[in-house]
What does this fold into?
Amino acid sequence: MINNNPISNLDLAWIEQLPSSIALLDTDFCLIDASEQWFSKFSLSRKDVKGKNIFELFPRLSENWKTKLEYALDGLKDIQIIDKAQVGDGVEGNFIWYLNPWKDGYGKSIGVVVNVKDVTETKRLQLELNRTNKLLKEKGSIAKIGSWEYNVEKEEVYLSPLVQEIFDIPRNSQLTLKSVINFYKKESAKIKMERAIHEAINSGAPWDENLEMISKNGRPLWVNTIGRPKFKDGKCARIIGTVQDVTSKFVAIKNEKSEATTSNNVYQQFFKESLIGMAVTDYDSGKFLEINEEFCNVTGFSKEDLIGKSYKGFKLLSNSSDKSNMLKQLSITSMFHLSGLNYTAKNGEKRKISLSGKLISNPNESKKIITSIVNVSASNRRSVNLLKQVNEANENIDKLVNFTHMISHNLKGHATNNSLLLNFLEKEDCEVERKKLLSILKAGNENVTETIKSLREIVSISNNNKLKKESIVVNDFIYRAEQRITGLIKSENAKIINEISDDFKIVALSAYLENIVLNLLSNAIKFRKSDKTPVVVISAEKNKTHTILSVEDNGVGIDLKKNSNKLFGLYKTLGNNGDARGMGLYLTKYQVDLMKGKIEVESMLNEGTTFKVYFPNK
Amino acid sequence: MPKQLDTILLLDDNYSTNFIHKKFISDANCTEQIIDFQSGIDALDYLSDVKNKIPDLIFVDINMPIMSAWEFLTNFNELDRDDTDNSVIILLTTSLSPKDEEKAANISTINGIWLKPLSEEKIGAIIEKYFELSS
It folds into this structure.
């Protein structure tokens, strides 16, 4: 049997023992084998991954990997890629991957060698990486060089196949010297070529010219043409030379040139309109040469004030330690950066500024410094605000996580319970047991319904947070709440004493106030003492900043020492009387928080409870 | 045939859960009596009376209002009786959070955390793990 696979004929036992992380891939980029180190680096097991494609093993490798692997197969050495890969469960590491062609004894590519190193001296490696990238680019455009010859005596032109390719002419075409010269596009180029040939024949001078031409197919090109006359018996017998396609190089140069010519304008425009204050000063004298508008805004001085005068006259860097710091930085790195400097503007306003500068030294010009100035007073204030917002957002996220956890926990419990109870019911024959199971199911179901109802309220709060607060009559809401819980009031024989006058107003969101009043009232009655008629007293007062609504009851009370921290937490129901709404107080607190108010509790076990809600007056 | 255990105590604020667990435990036929409570306070009331035998096995739901499993356990260990160590204590939860796991690992009196709901098989496994090997 003939084995066509060159790899299977090789003895690869050595690779296991290699002291570095090396893997061998075949021409389809499947893993042939790798060193122990390589497997352990990626927490892979040899027997699991051998034969698998590299893209299957590292699905997150970046897109251009395939191209680079193909380059390696083509024989390009030392391709380096910095890329991340998973090293264990959910853990990623950053690596530098070296790709090299793997060749058999006859120089034939049979795969790719992948060497992996941890990214350490990142900077150095980055630089090397850039170099490789450049090489890769060049590879795509390695210039074609073709040779040609002109026999002076016979007036015959010979062009090598590559030259014919560059000129887009068919193989074996017979061309005259004139028709070759005609490929050169511009009249000047034609004249140059004719003169060069003339000089070569008559005075033996060689030529080396870059000229524009147009191929037979109309493709514009830049070529480098070189010619060397060969003399025989004191007479020029032939000229030999080369033609190289250098279009890509020339197009690049041309672009650079045009960039260079326009860059000055762009720079001027940028300088003038930049939102960052900028100034150019003379290095030796410190005098302002150029300044933009924003620089004037930050310093408070006008252009006329500043131009031609030294920065020293404007309280910039008036602190000597700042100044020596700047000079020190400039002498080491030709740049400086000073942040958070105190500066007093022309109008006397105190400002915090940051200064950054760079030394510019052009030949034939005196040294200059370009400096940017930023007024950071506002951004300091802003970052304090931002920090506050971030903290608030984090708190909200904590709340949400807590919330979702509790909800999923709770609902999951209910759902499994219900399905288990249904199973029991299915198997139960005894009518008494069945009735019991049904009543438990019913109670459980009511519990879930209540939970979901409260959830909907919480969700609607999040949707309503753009509502506006208004000044509203409290008693309207108290009467409404009393009506909604008439059943409860009657069944518990509760007495509600409302001490608030009918014209008393509170600044609040009406939807929230309704909920708050309802929750506080129903809790006050629900948590009654079994041996006492429930009495609820509602009162209100106003101070300079807040309006305080109090709801006092004579119920079971709360042991605040034990419960104060979780009184307003989700699902922290007081007692366990089944019908207590788990989210009542959580919701109340949430709504009060949204109105930027606060809620307080005064209570002792068996001594009744007073809830006080503080509504801000604005 | 005598049952393996004398008393199992269930503590879960959800009535249905206690009901279901009671049914499974009685089906497993492993204990003389099952008592259940919906709040830690009531359970402690019962346990503080030395006339009541200390349960062989106590199941405690982690998430309970008013008194959480952690508070219950603290109070339980401080009870004025010296046989509290005889109880095997198992925490129950619907989903295991790493935070709870860590907390439980730091309390030596907790024998384990199991996911609820219990089943006949789980109860058999618990008895085997915590009682048969030690006897």
Remarks:
- Residues 381-461 of chain A form one domain.
- The mean pLDDT of chain A is 79.
- The radius of gyration of chain A is 43 Å.
